[in-house]
Design a protein that fits this description.
The protein is mainly beta. The protein contains no helices and 9 strands. Strands 1, 2, 3, 4, 5, 6, 7, 8 and 9 form a 9-stranded antiparallel sheet that branches. The chain is flat and about 45 Å long.
Amino acid sequence: MRSYTNKEGKKDGTITSYHKNGILHFTETWVDGKKHGYFEYNWSDGKCFHKGYYIYDKRHGWWEDYWSHGDVRYKGYYDMGVETYSHTDIRDKLIEISIS
């Protein structure tokens, strides 16, 4: 078994977890206790639920959430933690927001 903490007890490295059925549940990447790298969470059938990148605890780049049937529920772009664009699917209605 691998330890995912450093000498100071902070999360460090890539952490993966699996559903009881053996399908990947999530992948997280940490550096010295900070979210840094790719994060992905999956439904129990293996379809992606939530994914994106962090740079030292700040969301950066595209982040997406999905309904269990696979359609995009949310998509947003982040620039070092600041959301600059998003769209959300609520009850089959697409709402688009540009943030300046």
